Amino acid sequence: MSNDDRDILELLKDELSFIEKGGYGRSVHTPWKTQSTFQDSLTCINYGYPYRAHACNECHLLDFVNPEHQGTEIPCHYIPLNEAGETIEVLEARDNEATLQSKVRDWLRTKISEIEEERATRAIAGCP
């Protein structure tokens, strides 16, 4: 469980917006450098730090990672994105950026809907 005080719903919505606006496209300043899904956006708890100021176990995204991958160098790249269990790690190896971004977008939309439904249900039940 993370100790990230950011709202997970807003974090996922912001990530989806970032992707939909072409956020992981190649930079005109560094076109040779690929962008890393989650790590190169504000979603990453370490975004903007030249080193990892926070351990990945402090990030909300770790809650979506299967326990066997939580100790990896980039655990958020092991989030199962679909029923087939495809992860960012697997999709990056296939070197198809369009497919990767499409599947991440789909995963984000699904998680956002699930969280919104859960919160609506709790609100109706009078739970915080």
Question: SSE layout and pairings?
Answer:
Layout: H1 8-20, H2 88-93, H3 97-125
What do these coordinates show?
The chain is mostly helical. The chain has one domain (8-125). It has helices spanning 8-20, 88-93, 97-125. Helix 1 runs antiparallel to helix 3 (97-125). It starts with 7 loop residues before the first helix and ends with a helix.
Number of helical elements:
3
What is the C-alpha radius of gyration, as a whole number of Å?
15 Å
Biggest sheet character: none
Global morphology? globular
N-to-C SSE series?
A: HHH
Low-confidence stretches: none
Question: Would you count the extended β strands for me?
Answer: 0
For the termini, the CA-CA separation is: 18 Å
User: What number is the mean pLDDT?
Assistant: 87
Count of individual domains: 1
Helix content: 25-40%
Structural class per helix/strand content? mainly alpha
Estimate the strand proportion: under 5%
Concise structural overview:
The protein is mainly α. The protein is built from 3 helices and no strands.
